[in-house]
Amino acid sequence: MITRTFSRLLGLALLLAGLVGCSAMTAQNPSGSLRPVNAVPAEQGDALMLKGADLVAYFTQNQYMQGSSTIRSSYQGVTFHFATAEHKALFDKEPTKYLPQFGGFCANGIAYGIPWGGDADTWKMINAKLYIFGGAASRDAWLLDEATNLQRAERYWADEVAGNNSFWQRTKRLVFRVPHYQSGEQLSQAVAAAKAKKP
Question: What is the residue extent of each domain of the chain?
Fold first, then answer.
């Protein structure tokens, strides 16, 4: 049984590595202390956070805004784009204030120990911190029990995800699922049931 599970895990890890390539793995797992992050390979091999979304805009304008590659900063081996020079200056002064929680990965996925996904245009501010989600359905599932999901996500991030390789962690938790794991279909059904109960 253990051998078969290990074989599945190894096979899945090799498949993921082959599908995503080394550049994506490097972008999500940069050499600085800020890892893993929801980043993509960009110019000159940079790890570009959230495909260039302007992180400061969430805080100052309460909206998602795409940044420009001509207005950029680097922090802990990760590149950030900004829509304005003012936003860049704010970030440069206090970068940690503007960083998304859980490396910019889907907060709902981190509640299952899985660093995966995260769309810059689907987000929520909680206690003046930025949380990214893998789409509206993922955010709706998170909101079913936000307090519990936040507690779980913070625990898995601290105990398993932060500082580790995103691809290995994702593979591990897709094979060895957390006790409270629910599939996308199960979460969709729970969200639909909750919406049906509302007047």
Answer: 10-197
